[in-house]
Amino acid sequence: MNGYDLVDEVFLDASPDVVWNALIAELCGAARWWVPHNTFEPGAVPPDQVGGETRVTVHTKGVDKGGPKLRFTSRTRRVEPGRRLLVDYVEGVFRGSAEFTLEPLDDGRRTRLAMRFLARPHGWARLLDRVVDLGGQHSKTIREAFANLGALVGGALVGGGAR
């Protein structure tokens, strides 16, 4: 496979500010809703600032369950607080970008959160991608994480996948 262009989304019963704060907290290592699949470790500059770096570990069988770990680093390229976060994958098993967009709904009482994953596997992940549908696994784990986020903030309707 040459790469992925995936969009996953969730409709959350929470304001964009609440969703934004939960997203940034998770990328700063809170481990409240993306676990057991992904964990995040922020660098010296936080992910909600341009130039911020976050080390991401994808735990293919879950945290502390063994199995391959996919590691990569994202660097924040653009921030519109409460609305948009654009990161580039600059090191590790993926190259490309991810974009999180938040759209207020119902006069700001609900939020549509979408993640676009526009990337390609790099290094040994290119070989792994030949035997495992990494793109499909990505969307599956994003949808699970979004459902967990919905439980955290008050409810969710999750959807998405390949473009």
UniProtKB/TrEMBL annotation:
| Gene3D superfamilies, per the entry | 3.30.530.20
InterPro entries in UniProt: Polyketide_cyclase/dehydratase (IPR019587), START-like_dom_sf (IPR023393)
**A Pfam match:** Polyketide_cyc2
Q: Which domain of life is it from?
A: Bacteria
The name this protein carries in UniProt is Uncharacterized conserved protein YndB, AHSA1/START domain
Taxonomic lineage of this organism? Bacteria, Bacillati, Actinomycetota, Actinomycetes, Streptosporangiales
